[in-house]
Amino acid sequence: MYATTKILKYNEIHTTINFYLIMKNDASGELAFFVLLAKHANLSATARELDLTPPAVTKRLATLERRLGVRLVNRTTRRLSLTSEGEIYLAHASRILAEINEMEDLVSSSSATPRGLLRVNAPLGFGRTTLAPLMSEYAKRNPEVEVQLELTDRPVDLVEQGFDLAVRFGELPDTRLSARRILPNRRFLCASPAYLQQHGVPQTLSDLSSHRCIIHRQNDDAYGIWRFTRNRKTEVVKVHGALSSNDGDIVLGWALDGHGLLIRSEWNLVKYLESGRLQVVLPAYKLPEADLFAFYPSRRNLSARVRTFIDFLVAEIGQAPTIKHLLKLS
């Protein structure tokens, strides 16, 4: 690993790199070439991405070093490591290319036609079932936008990994980010009618200690800790159960099978509550909300592709049905 790993934001300037690599004799082309080489730390991998032979990449590196009069990398049989001069060159090259990319974003933001690379991060289940089809439709409407969707259950560092935005449920994960709410989304405690008929309906929070609870393990949240609020008073309940998973669809399936009580958001519950396959328990208590947000690095001006994509999500998802009418909630 290089000392400048945090400085190198290859994916953020991916489009800029691809453009300037075409201009082989241009100074910006040399910067882009070296950033790509540092990313892979391998001549063969760099050659594959550039569709060149390894000797051609070696020759290009030698030409750059000869022009600068310094060695930029130390070569081993398998990998490359940067010299101190290489670290300096990489840091400045990354910054310059990122500034070029930002400049082009600012200029193109005033254009009516979104274009360029749009990199989006989202959680696995929601990304597969909901976001991927929406991105397909967005791409059809905006043919000059190159769309990349990466799915990870754990939130990623948008700034360091070069994403334009993330679409996620819950609170702002990073103070360096801005956010726009796509959909309000409350959480509810629920269970199947079969489970409630067999084990009874909880009437108070203290009743939960005698019930089977299905635990959804999320990121680094405390295991089996549920927080309820009523009349501005918050109570913390430690629950227990035989079933737990980090996958939301799995725990929802267990609740539908009658294994116990589960906390899920109305985004996931609405159709099952309408059909009667699940029922809300202790509706007078509120749970932490899980609103759906588009998070993005703070910038004065969003590029046209990011701005129009967020607008598209709000239009397509923001009118999704809620369960308020079922429970007569305010």
Kindly describe this structure.
This protein is of the alpha/beta class. It has 3 domains: 99 residues, Arc Repressor Mutant, subunit A (Orthogonal Bundle); 105 residues, 3-Layer(aba) Sandwich (D-Maltodextrin-Binding Protein, domain 2); 95 residues, D-Maltodextrin-Binding Protein, domain 2 (3-Layer(aba) Sandwich), CATH 3.40.190. 42% of the residues lie in helices and 20% in strands. It contains 12 helices and 14 strands. A 5-stranded mixed beta sheet has the order 4-3-5-14-6, covered by helices on one side. It has a 3-stranded antiparallel beta sheet with strand order 12-7-13. It has a two-stranded antiparallel ribbon with strand order 1-2. α2 crosses α5 and α3 crosses α4. It is elongated. The N terminus is likely disordered.
Task: Looking at this protein, list some descriptive labels.
330 residues, alpha/beta, Arc Repressor Mutant, subunit A, D-Maltodextrin-Binding Protein, domain 2, 3 domains, 5-stranded mixed beta sheet, 3-stranded antiparallel beta sheet, 12 helices, 42% helix, disordered N terminus
The CATH class assignment of the largest domain is Alpha Beta
The 3D shape can be described as: elongated
Tally of strands = 14
How do the SSEs run, as a string of H and E?
A: HHHHEEHEHEHEEEHEEEEHEHEEHH
Query: What fraction of the residues are assigned to beta strands by DSSP?
Result: 15-25%
Strand order of the largest sheet: 4-3-5-14-6
**Rounded radius of gyration (Å):** 25 Å
Which consecutive residue ranges, at least 5 long each, have pLDDT under 50? 1-25
